[in-house]
Design a protein that fits this description.
Layout (H helix, E strand, L loop, with lengths): L16 E5 L3 E6 L7 E5 L5 E4 L12 E5 L2 E7 L2 E16 L2 E14 L7 H18 L4 E3 L9 H12 L3 H4 L8 H9 L10 E12 L2 E11 L23 E9 L2 E9 L6 E2 L11 E2 L5 H16 L1 E6 L5 H14 L7 E5 L2 H5 L8 H14 L2 E3 L5 E3 L3 E6 L5 H21 L13 H23 L6 H6 L4 H20 L1 H12 L15 H31 L4 H21 L15
Parallel strand pairs: 13-20, 16-17, 16-20
Antiparallel strand pairs: 1-2, 1-5, 2-3, 3-4, 6-7, 7-8, 8-9, 9-10, 10-11, 11-12, 12-13, 13-18, 14-15, 18-19
Helix pairs in contact: 1-13, 5-6, 9-10, 14-15
Length: about 600
């Protein structure tokens, strides 16, 4: 489609800026040759305007200078304004012919030099400093100065050239625009050349040669911001139907001039439930407002239908215990809306595959194979002509939507890739990716890295069961890594993720800073003391249990003493279970997530 004659091309985004730190102003000087005007930001109140030149400098003026690669946005707090800038980046590949960068350095620039700030305002700002530090450590951010990373290649093709001529921030899919809230002050001030859209997720590419044909495969993860958060503090869905840990994964294949893509999604079971940390290894699952489950789930699936067409929900959780209760609620809630376009498949991953027999996922594929063939994938010819459209997606979940989910999604992605390569003649009718050793190895690493990135953002550690995705089999080292990562998740979930959750909510505008807000929170020293006490209780419990076993083994006469030790151990365990939440690092603003 030709761009209409009255439309104007959007201004190019600045790719490189020299940041001058004067006493009263920050000045961003473009050094990419795209504009002559400079952006000046007041360090007193964060106001911004375009200027023609740098401030006059006297002999004693010695401003700090550094290169930055974009402004992610502006955060307004009670005692000041903060500009979040990209201090470092790595080029990680290209999307639709344009470079894609990963953010590797972030910095907040404080604009709170007002001498009139009240003590109360300063206290609020101090309380938020810990959250800003956590926010600067945000990982998995990607951007492009020239291409829209927030929408799928099929959607971008459908929208046409006129849509592509809009500024990138106006093209962006709001669900996946990680810095949408932070961009608002820049939009209000019409700073068009500084409006850089950013996604959180993953961007990975591999290049292979198959029978003299070059094959490029790109895997993109786009994390939804609507219910963004950490593993234990964001479960289930909210009343609007937005699910926690909702990630869209798009696999793009390019070869022989053809471009093919397949989109699948993951997300927490879409009804109201939670799992609040309490120092136990696996806190109980609590379904909240059971009477609303069907309505919330229906809203979620109808929203998916609008965006992806048909949906098959693949549920991988256990059929017993706490997970079993979640499965039963899911199955019962989705039953009223099941149809030709909304299907539900339950596959008890642990029961069928155990810890090593992941090849049995073929049983799941047999159940959805007809669905995948019916709803196809997106395919463009070497002349950029549409050959096929993807008309449905697979929505996969386990409890965390990390480990079992990534193994399953990698299987679906592999099957679709093989079908695409057979369609364009790179593969023969019976060829599979595993027939080509180097291609197979690289493809496994591609999906393993994809899963690790999504897992680290949500849980703080790489994905479990990653050795199977990476090597095609379970390994001793992989099992040991899983043990270590499981322990690391326990620590992070109980003693670190509360602050991280608050930082995420702050950056998304889910909590608005106010000087009247009750910001009373435990000090770092108090939190550290709580952690020490919690760990001491746990270690004493373990010690008593070991002693009771040894006493019973060494001398039957000490059986009574052993029972006393065991009873004391059980008492301590009970105390931790009952009072564990008081020791955990809870989000400072935590309310019921629903």
């Amino acid at each position: 489609m030709d761009v209409s004659s009255n439309s104007c091309p959007s201004p190019k985004l600045h790719t490189r800026l020299r940041l001058w730190e004067f006493a009263d102003n920050y000045v961003f000087e473009p050094v990419d040759g795209l504009a002559d005007l400079l952006l000046s930001v007041s360090r007193v109140n964060g106001s911004m305007n375009l200027v023609e030149e740098l401030p006059q400098r006297g002999p004693s003026t010695n401003p700090k200078v550094q290169i930055v690669f974009g402004i992610i946005g502006v955060l307004k707090l009670a005692a000041g304004t903060y500009f979040l800038v990209i201090t470092d980046r790595d080029c990680v590949g290209s999307y639709l012919g344009h470079a894609v960068f990963k953010v590797t350095g972030l910095r907040f620039l404080a604009c709170n030099n007002s001498l009139g700030a009240s003590a109360e305002q300063k206290n609020v700002d101090t309380e938020f400093s810990e959250l800003l530090d956590a926010a600067e450590r945000t990982i998995g951010l990607y951007f492009s100065y020239d291409s829209n990373l927030t929408v799928t290649s099929q959607r971008l093709h459908e929208l046409g050239e006129e849509f592509k001529s809009l500024p990138l921030w106006r093209q962006a899919e709001p669900r996946f625009l990680w810095n949408g809230y932070l961009l608002e002050p820049l939009i209000e001030n019409k700073m068009h050349q500084y409006l850089l859209p950013v996604i959180q997720g993953s961007f990975q590419s591999i290049h292979a040669e198959v029978r003299s044909e070059k094959v490029n495969v790109t895997l993109i993860a786009r994390r939804c911001t609507r219910r963004i958060g950490t593993r234990m503090w964001r479960r289930g869905a909210d009343p609007e139907g937005y699910a926690a840990n909702f990630v869209e994964s798009e696999q793009i294949m390019q070869s022989k001039g053809f471009t093919a893509s397949y989109v699948q999604v993951r997300g927490s079971m879409p009804f109201l439930w939670e799992q609040i940390v309490d120092l136990t290894y696996k806190p109980s699952f609590d379904v909240v407002r059971v009477e609303e489950a069907s309505r919330v789930l229906e809203r979620h699936f109808h929203d998916l239908q609008k965006k992806y067409g048909a949906v098959v929900g693949v549920d991988l959780v256990n059929t017993h215990g706490g997970e079993g209760r979640l499965y039963e609620r899911y199955a019962k809630s989705i039953e009223p809306i099941l149809s030709e376009d909304i299907r539900f498949v339950h596959f008890d991953f642990h029961k069928i595959c155990g810890h090593i027999h992941f090849e049995r996922l073929s049983q799941l594929y047999d159940q959805i194979q007809d669905y995948l063939k019916k709803h196809k994938y997106f395919l463009l010819s070497d002349k950029d002509e549409k050959i096929e459209l993807q008309t449905g997606t697979v929505r996969t979940n386990c409890v965390d939507c990390l480990d079992r989910t990534n193994v399953t999604q990698s299987m679906v992605g592999r099957k679709l890739l093989e079908s695409q390569l057979q369609r364009i003649g790179v593969f023969g009718a019976t060829d599979t990716v595993s027939n080509f050793q180097d291609f197979d190895a690289n493809y496994k690493v591609l999906w393993a890295n994809h899963g690790d990135a999504i897992s680290t953002q949500y849980s703080g550690t790489p994905a479990l069961k990653g050795d199977f995705v990476r090597y095609g089999k379970r390994t001793t080292q992989g099992i040991l890594n899983d043990l270590w990562n499981a322990l690391a998740r326990y620590y992070l979930n109980n003693f670190a993720d509360g602050t991280k959750q608050d930082a995420m909510d702050l950056l998304q505008g889910h909590y608005i800073s106010s000087v009247s807000m009750d910001m009373t929170a435990p000090s770092k020293a108090g939190l550290l003391e709580s952690c020490r006490l919690a760990f001491a209780l746990i270690m004493v419990t373990v010690l008593f249990m070991i002693m009771s076993v040894r006493q019973a083994r060494n001398d039957a006469r000490h059986l009574v003493l052993s029972l006393m030790w065991a009873g004391l151990s059980m008492g301590i365990s009970r105390y931790v279970k009952t009072n564990g939440r008081m020791f955990c690092n809870r989000p400072r603003f935590y309310q019921s997530r629903h």
